[in-house]
Amino acid sequence: MTTSATAPVATALPPIGLGTWPLVGAEATKSVLSGIEAGYRLIDTAAIYGNEDAVGVALAQSGVPREDLFVTTKLRGNDQVSGDIRGALEQSLQRLGLEQLDMFMIHWPLPRIDRYVATFEAMRACRDAGLVRYVGVSNFLGHHLRRLVDETGEAPAVNQIQMDPSIARIPVRSANDELGVFTQSWSPLGRGDVLDDAVVGAISHRIGCTAAQVVLAWHIEQGVVPVARSANPARQAENLASLDVRLTAEDIEALNSLDRGESAARDVEAEEHF
Ligand SMILES: NC(=O)c1ccc[n+]([C@@H]2O[C@H](COP(=O)([O-])OP(=O)(O)OC[C@H]3O[C@@H](n4cnc5c(N)ncnc54)[C@H](OP(=O)(O)O)[C@@H]3O)[C@@H](O)[C@H]2O)c1
What we know:
The chain has 274 residues and is α/β, with parallel strands linked by helices. It has helices spanning 9-12, 25-38, 52-62, 77-82, 85-96, 116-128, 142-152, 170-179, 198-207, 211-221, 233-240, 249-256; strands spanning 17-19, 42-44, 70-75, 101-106, 132-138, 158-162, 182-186, 225-228. Strands 1-2-3-4-5-6-7-8 form an 8-stranded parallel beta barrel, surrounded by 4 helices. Helix 7 (142-152) runs parallel beside helix 8. It starts with 8 loop residues before the first helix and ends in an 18-residue tail after the last helix.
């Protein structure tokens, strides 16, 4: 059964996602199973993670109806080079054990090879063929997004970017907002680095929640869907419970002051991610 993308992505997307990199094999299956059991419905993988098969086992074993899950995978750079986008998608679907993907993203723009416009067009054709509900991108900067819109007449549904309070990505988020592109955040906890920050600690102490919950609430309250990874069932549940944490405008402002600017983010233009 395939579902068409009639709903705007903002209403179809669960408010928080479960990351799967760098988990593989049985560890990835176990983590996704416990995550789904805890209540996650957005599962994030990528062809290059080498875990789509392990994620697929968990999706099948979870017992949760397919239409209640939102599964994202990402096209690897090698497939942008070969140009066989539909073939790559069909292989991802096969590994995941799915007939239709919810979100298919270009993993990195890879401007050096200059294929992302043609890749986006090919992904739209996959959507028109019913193989995928939404087409998105990851790690795109404002000028990459504007070029997609100028040359194809369509903006991607989502741009998944590196983002945490210390790398707040204001310029990219402004471009996303301007073009109607929904923002998702990867490494939303800064891979744990931002959790020891004194500002985060003071807010968590005052509210009576954990540092990770403060950081995830900062994403959520700004309308961003964080894709957080934990292989630990207790921390998976803790992160999910950040949906119930309420920050004040002053808290958000204090967390915003941690931003180190764009230079602290991965250098997208130089990225060689195949
Ligand atoms: N689009 C892209 O290019 C891209 C790039 C990188 C990542 N991603 C996606 O984004 C996901 C998340 O990013 P990430 O994995 O780099 O980093 P992250 O989610 O910011 O951080 C993960 C780390 O934080 C720890 N952690 C999680 N919850 C915690 C909690 N409540 N308290 C303390 N520590 C906690 C985890 O350890 P434990 O497992 O021990 O809890 C793990 O070491 C990835 O898994 C992947 O799916 C996408």
